[in-house]
Every structure is written in structure tokens, then in C-alpha cells.
Specification:
372 residues, alpha+beta, Aminopeptidase, Elongation Factor Tu (Ef-tu), domain 3, 2 domains, eight-stranded mixed β-sheet, six-stranded antiparallel β-barrel, 9 helices, 24% helix, 26% strand, disordered N terminus
């Protein structure tokens, strides 16, 4: 995610929610489990939606999904939002049937203690709880100490190892329970907005472009990438295959509009004030300027964040693919990242999709993204 920075807002404050017909898709997608390496259910949901708006939908051996609009144009623009999420993986089943786990991606175990989880077994999901010794029985010297993932275990109610193995196996992934729900003021909560909301935005942008394809002068590749949480892998392979001239990643960014967050380090970023644009070494200055001017012209609100180093997003992988790609990052402000209660604003989501569509329509063949 982008690091540090100051805020900048432009354009009128707009209310927003996904375009007609997209709400059901968003809710379905957010209720779909997709831990890194096991993204197929999410990709099936995305493919069903994408086929309604793309000229072609491709899947690759890595698991990436590429929805293409206006194929054959000389200039290719790649939009990337990763559909994978953090989770857990069963690494050991003890004699009593308790499941011990390791982390998939950047798991904060303090967010998981006492939570319900779903173990995604081959026979179907199995409900369990993440157990830990109660504070009453912990030695005094262990109370208040940091928790490691390996200190936790999943209790599925099994009576023995054999009983547990009837339902789950070593290597099965697990996700924390975090149901999708609406909050006040067009905000929504779910597990996995990092970054299924990014995958949603790139497909929503494709949907917005479809009825305006007569004005489209480039090929658009809306890509739902995989395995971002363990090294930007899907963006690396799909960018190599597509060989785009322009690449825009859509991910989540740190909202700082809640008590105790460090605005001096991460900027003053609020939910509902527009998506985050970024400036820094990972961002092509020509493309960045085009996106800002497009937002201002179309009165799309946005916030600005400084990204002096790598952004830790799919934009990193796209930027250094082959001979280099002109890249940008659009971030959806997100509270409580990598938890079961991530919160985003539908206003920001809609504005992000609109900004992507309008920026792509502004790209003319022959434009140079070489920094002057």
C-alpha cells in the first residue's frame, strides 16, 4: 500500500454506489472465499459478471482472469485488482483433532483470537473456532505478550485426529468469518475488501466502458490477479503475457479517519472523499497528471497520497514488466485492513470505477508516457 503523504481533494462531492446490476455481483463476490492460492471460487463469480461486458474472457495457468474489451487495438491498457485474500492453512492435526495453522500472507493473529473460521475442505467448508488458552490459565509472564499464529489452533469439534481427517486435511486453507453488511452513509463492511474490492472496481470500469466502446481507442484488459498477498505473482505473469503500455492497479489504501491513526505518516485520508491517487517512484508522472486532470475535468473527487517508495501493490510488478510499463495506482480508502471488519465507502468505489473509465477514454494512440 502507498506510504506517507498529504491529502488533496478535487471535484464535487458525489454520492455513489455501484452501477445498476452490480450490487448483487459485489455482494456475491464479497461472500466468496478466496485465500491466496485458492482463488477459483472468486474467479468464477468474476467471470460470470465479466462475460456480460467483455468481448473475450481468458484464464491462464496461474489462475489470473483477463476480461478484454476492444481487442486488437495497438495500445493496450491493463487494469489489475487482485482477488486473493489473507488466510490460514492447516499444517498439523494432533491426536485430539485440533488443527494447527500457519499464515497465508500478512495475518495479524491479534485480529483472529476468539473468531469463527471456515476451513475450506475438499468435501466443503467446515466451521471452526480459533482457540487459545484463556487468560485465567496463562502464566503471569505470558499475559500481554505478542501472539503468534502458531500459538493458535482451530477447534472444529472433532473427537480425534481420525474424526478431523474425515472433514479436513493438511494443506486446507481457512478464512475468518466476516460477513458482508451495510453500515450507515453508504459504507459497507466485510472480510477481504483487500482486495476483492479492487477486482470489483476494474470489472465495474469495464462495464462503464462497454456502452462507450465507439469512443475507445485502446484495448482494455481488466485483470483479476491472483497471489498478490504473497509476492504480486499474478500481476507479474499476466503483465508479461499482456505486454501493456499502460497499467493501473486498484488496491486498498489506509484510511486514517479513526482514533489514534498516524496522519503524519500515512496522510489525512477519509472514507467517502474519493479514491486515493498516488505520487512517487512507482507512478508514471505523465499518467499521474492525466488522471488528476481527468478527475478535475469530470468532477470526480479524489485524495492524494505520497508514495516515495514501492507501493506494495500490483503496480510494482506491472511497472517493471518487460521493458517497463507506465503505471499508476488507485486506492480505495479502507479502515481496519487485514481484519474481518474492513470498511469502505461505496462512494469511493463508484468514483474509482468512473475515474478509470474516463482516463482510459482520454488515452489516444501514439501518446508518449516517457517522462519529459
Amino acid at each position: 500500500m502507498a506510504e506517507g503523504g498529504a491529502k488533496r481533494e478535487k471535484g464535487k462531492k458525489t454520492k455513489g454506489k455501484p452501477a445498476e446490476g452490480s450490487w448483487d455481483f459485489l455482494e456475491k463476490l464479497m461472500r466468496t472465499d478466496s485465500p491466496t492460492g485458492f482463488e477459483q471460487p472468486a474467479q468464477r463469480a468474476i467471470e460470470e459478471f465479466a462475460r456480460q461486458h467483455a468481448d473475450r474472457v481468458d484464464r491462464d495457468v496461474h489462475g489470473n482472469l483477463m476480461a478484454v474489451l476492444n481487442p486488437g487495438a495497438e495500445m493496450r491498457v491493463m487494469l489489475a485488482g487482485h482477488c486473493d485474500e489473507i488466510g490460514l492453512m492447516v499444517s498439523f492435526i494432533d491426536e485430539q483433532g485440533f488443527l494447527f495453522v500457519n499464515a497465508i500472507g500478512g495475518v495479524d493473529p491479534t485480529m483472529y483470537v476468539g473468531s469463527r473460521v471456515r476451513v475450506l475442505g475438499k468435501k466443503g467448508p467446515v466451521l471452526g473456532v480459533l482457540g487459545r488458552r484463556p487468560i485465567h490459565t496463562l502464566p503471569a509472564e505470558e499475559r500481554g505478550k505478542p501472539i503468534k499464529v502458531t500459538d493458535l489452533w482451530i477447534d472444529i469439534g472433532a473427537s480425534s485426529a481420525d474424526d478431523a481427517r474425515e472433514h479436513v486435511a493438511v494443506g486446507d486453507p481457512a478464512v475468518i468469518e466476516g460477513s458482508f453488511a451495510r453500515l450507515l452513509n453508504e459504507t459497507v463492511v466485510a472480510r477481504g475488501f483487500d482486495d476483492r474490492i479492487g477486482a470489483f472496481v476494474v470489472m465495474e470500469a469495464l462495464k462503464l466502458l462497454r456502452p462507450r466502446r465507439d469512443k475507445l481507442k485502446v484495448s482494455v484488459y481488466a485483470v483479476s490477479t491472483v497471489q498478490e498477498e504473497v509476492g504480486l505473482r499474478g500481476a507479474r505473469t499476466s503483465a508479461f503475457s499482456i505486454d501493456p503500455q499502460v497499467g493501473i492497479a486498484v488496491d486498498v489504501g489506509f484510511a486514517t479517519d479513526y482514533p489514534g491513526e498516524n496522519k503524519r505518516e500515512f496522510g489525512d485520508i477519509k472514507l467517502g472523499k474519493g479514491p486515493i491517487l498516488n505520487r512517487g517512484s512507482n507512478i508514471n508522472p505523465v499518467l499521474a497528471d492525466m488522471m488528476e486532470k481527468t478527475a478535475e475535468k469530470k468532477k470526480i473527487p479524489f485524495q492524494m497520497q505520497a508514495a516515495p517508495n514501492s507501493t506494495g501493490t500490483d503496480a510494482n510488478a506491472m511497472q517493471i514488466s518487460r521493458g517497463g510499463v507506465a503505471t499508476a495506482l488507485v486506492s480505495i480508502p479502507n479502515r481496519y485492513m487485514h481484519s474481518a471488519i474492513e470498511v469502505v465507502s461505496l462512494r469511493d468505489v463508484s468514483a474509482a470505477a468512473m475515474l478509470l473509465a474516463e482516463t482510459i477514454l482520454a488515452i489516444e494512440p501514439g501518446i508518449s508516457f516517457v517522462p519529459a
